[in-house]
Amino acid sequence: MTNLFSVFDPSSSLVPFSLNWAAATLGLIFLPYCFWTVPSRYTAVFKSVEKALSREMNLLLGESNQFLTLIFLSMFIFIFMNNSLGMLPYVFTASSQLVISLSLALPLWTGYFIYGWVKHTTHMLAHLVPQGTPGVLMPFMVLIESISGVIRPGTLAVRLAANMIAGHLLLTLLSGSISIFSPLSGLIFLVSQIALLVLETAVAVIQAYVFAVLSTLYASEV
């Protein structure tokens, strides 16, 4: 490891070509099993989470845009599987790369942003100036709201990548520190690393949820 961030380098020497980015779609292999295997607790939990997210997204999108629910639900499952697979040893964490997170956020944001300005121009202009804004502050509010809207895909992408990088960096630092301390200190570090691993697993779920729900909220404003 040449530096601390080299753990996120997409490099592999197993075959002549890199298979690291295959990890981004590795989770899709396990999805078809829930449709033909015997129902289990795993499938029951998966279905309950899917139904809960569908209800929440339908409420946010409204009746006219409920066809978008499947897109954002699929995005949640894709990001969750990538985050979860990144917790396994020797599996490349694709969601820690801005290439992946920005590829998810930018096309969707561009699509409903252009659709909103073409089909609902008056509605989009109304969003630039909140109700009750004094006339003197209107130019500044238009500028601030425009910048806020433009940076939305960037904030979505950076939030996901930064949270996944931060947890993995802490795990890497703790694992490298165990060998240079006394056995008692090493045990404390080991317990801390297990607790951090549990926390990082929760972060993997939360970040997938935040990404999908914020994308839904942005689409509901169109």
TrEMBL record:
SUPFAM superfamilies: F1F0 ATP synthase subunit A. GO terms for molecular function: proton-transporting ATP synthase activity, rotational mechanism. NCBIfam families: ATP_synt_6_or_A (TIGR01131). Belongs to the ATPase A chain family. One of its GO terms (cellular component) is proton-transporting ATP synthase complex. Keywords: ATP synthesis, CF(0), Hydrogen ion transport, Ion transport, Membrane, Mitochondrion, Transmembrane, Transmembrane helix, Transport. It is a multi-pass membrane protein. PANTHER family: ATP SYNTHASE SUBUNIT A. It is found in: Membrane; Mitochondrion inner membrane. It comes from Idotea baltica. The chain crosses the membrane at residues 20-38, 59-81, 87-115, 160-182, 194-219. This is ATP synthase subunit a. InterPro entries: ATP_synth_F0_asu, ATP_synth_F0_asu_AS, ATP_synth_F0_asu_bact/mt, F0_ATP_A_sf. PROSITE patterns: ATPASE_A (PS00449). It comes from the Eukaryota.
